[in-house]
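note to self — DONT lose this again. spent like an hour looking for the file last time. sequence + predicted structure for the chain T wanted, 146 res
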Amino acid sequence: FVQGCFHKLFGALAVPEMQAAMRGEVTQHAILVPLSLQKLGSEGFGGAQGIDRFREQHAAMLLPVRRAMRERGATGLHAFVFKQGLAKPFLSITIALPDSMDPAAMLPELLRDERVCYDWDQFIMSVHDTAASKGQAWWASATAAS
């Protein structure tokens, strides 16, 4: 059964775009999301313990998001929070995508179409410091690794 599912998603029975993506090179992309201390406080995530609570809730939400992204071709999704020694906390997200995929096009579509990804997007937007991002969406700063 599992082998059949694998072949349907990634093998000979997969859609041509997925087959091409699986054969291509993979590029790491990084997204650095500035977190607003004011928004963290209003969401109940204030202080060091609050950032820890945010990190725990984010980690719990990330598992189903990984699954949804894997179905769309992402081969890796990781996140961690910069908090100590910085004046402003940051959420760092890394995602591995096939060269044929553009994160600027794929992420908004995925965040809109998949319910778990939409909830994750809303969770991050609730604490995202839009002023530090110059009014851009949190995922708009995706940068390919060199």
